[in-house]
């Protein structure tokens, strides 16, 4: 199974969630588009404990930490979702991390979520909670539904807000795969802890 990790915003916690999912399934990890340094693949690799997972090379590595469409302009390259090819992961799970939120542009026509059109996968949406996050979460979910994107479930990341979480879940009608608390440190032990919890939901 391939899981595509996207989020309601840029700093919602996709890389941490990707590391947890990769550890849970002993999956391979791939970030098709990397904009800026250090690379998220390096962060994921540093958080893994298992020796089975492979970190697959990015298809696009851009120098500017910005929206991929702009970072690509700066580097004078073109990004096309339709040209992205799934790395070879025969009989293995693959965790694919998007860039920014679901509707971050890759170019003047395509968005990050359009990468999911290229190969079979289910989306896992990362939601962090802040003033306005209910709106951002439901708008993202409505867009995914409109595009007929299959969503596996939601992962809440960061300080909990039960009222916000319940209203998002009520309208989303999707399972909550995991609740990640505000951790003092993010390390391999924390990733293993959450991996053991989410494994049964995947």
Automatic annotation (TrEMBL):
Pfam families per the UniProt record, alphabetical: AAA_26
Identification of the protein by name: ATP-dependent dethiobiotin synthetase BioD
Record text on subunit structure and interactions: Homodimer.
Gene Ontology terms: cellular component: cytosol
Entries under HAMAP family matching the protein: BioD (MF_00336)
UniProt catalytic activity: (7R,8S)-7,8-diammoniononanoate + CO2 + ATP = (4R,5S)-dethiobiotin + ADP + phosphate + 3 H(+)
Catalytic site: 31
Lineage: Bacteria, Pseudomonadati, Bacteroidota, Cytophagia, Cytophagales
Binding site for Mg(2+): 15, 40, 97
Class of this enzyme: ligase
Cofactor(s) needed: Mg(2+)
Localization: Cytoplasm
Chief subcellular location: cytoplasm
Annotated InterPro entries: DTB_synth_BioD (IPR004472), P-loop_NTPase (IPR027417)
Catalytic activity, EC: 6.3.3.3
CDD domains noted in UniProt: DTBS
Family, per entry: Belongs to the dethiobiotin synthetase family.
UniProt GO BP: biotin biosynthetic process
Gene name, Swiss-Prot/TrEMBL: bioD
Role summary: Catalyzes a mechanistically unusual reaction, the ATP-dependent insertion of CO2 between the N7 and N8 nitrogen atoms of 7,8-diaminopelargonic acid (DAPA, also called 7,8-diammoniononanoate) to form a ureido ring.
């Amino acid at each position: 199974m391939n899981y595509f990790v996207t989020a309601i915003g840029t700093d919602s916690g996709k890389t941490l969630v990707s590391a947890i999912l990769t550890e849970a399934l002993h999956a391979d990890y791939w970030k098709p588009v990397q904009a800026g340094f250090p690379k998220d693949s390096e962060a994921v690799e540093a958080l893994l404990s298992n020796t089975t997972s492979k970190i697959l090379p990015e298809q696009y590595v851009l120098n500017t930490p910005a929206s991929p469409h702009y970072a690509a302009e700066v580097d004078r390259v073109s990004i096309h979702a339709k040209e992205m090819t799934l790395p070879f992961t025969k009989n293995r799970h693959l965790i694919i991390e998007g860039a920014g939120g679901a509707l971050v542009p890759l170019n003047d026509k395509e968005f990050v979520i359009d990468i999911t059109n290229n190969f079979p996968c289910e989306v896992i949406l990362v939601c962090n909670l802040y003033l306005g996050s209910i709106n951002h979460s439901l708008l993202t979910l409505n867009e995914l539904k409109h595009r007929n994107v299959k969503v596996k479930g939601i992962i809440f990341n960061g300080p909990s807000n039960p009222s916000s979480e319940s209203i998002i879940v009520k309208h989303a009608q999707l399972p909550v795969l995991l609740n990640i608390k505000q951790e003092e440190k993010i390390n391999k032990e924390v990733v293993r802890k959450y991996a053991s919890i989410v494994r049964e939901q995947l």
